[in-house]
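HUMAN: Forgive my ignorance: could you write out one protein's sequence and backbone structure tokens?

ASSISTANT:
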Amino acid sequence: MNIVFCDIDGTFQDLAGEVPQVNYDAITALQKQGDHFVFISGRGYEQLNELMNELDSECDVIFSNGGGYKLVGQPVQYNHCLSIEESEKAIAILEARNIFYHIHTNKGIILKSVDHYESNILALRQKLEPMGKAGQQIMDFKESFFKEQCQHVEDPYHYLVEHPELKVMKIELMEASDEEHVLLRELLASESVDVFSSFTQCLEIVNSKSSKGNAINEFMKDFPDARSYGIGDGENDLPMLEVVDIPVAVGNAKESVKEKCQRIIGDCLDGGVGKFIFEEIIK
């Protein structure tokens, strides 16, 4: 049996872009021959509904970089979340440094009003200017998403305290300054908390057990004889690539990711994932 673990953003799908049809076709072909396709993403489960609805059949999903999972036919499980104490410490640091952050919970994303971060967003737009139209599209999408699809609260930490039923999957930040990224990693990381980069100018703060590598090791306990593939593009994919049998990078992946992989395939936009599956795994 083959099990393909695949990142979403930057790997299976370009940010807010159309998914190449060959990727969907490859999932169907894998499942028909008895193999597994597992989405493994930094997104929260509630952010995956649109993508899941496009599939011909249900897939296993590991979300929030291993903070939880949803197996076919079973309820959603949240197993590696940030505690309220860990969240309080991280939020205090981010507030003191006026960092643009948002909190992923099991019920959606919360953050202060986007108007509060006008200067941060302007700095990010300037940082991404060398990317041309792509950088503008990224920021347009991000700003629209934060304004229209997230919940705005006056005080995120006190909101969490007042709603103990919420589970904090991760705290994500966007920051224009590379120097600030280095400092924030030092300030935020601890024995129980990991910090890593994801996508463009983002850092994610998660439970130390919330990693794609740990999640895959737990998943594979039920399939000890299966061959595992991991396909990714970013730093948060490195723990996955370290534990699978065959690590694979899409052509648009970071160089640090490509260096860890046995195979480099086509770009995300060109359906590299689906083409690789058809060429290498489908019988």
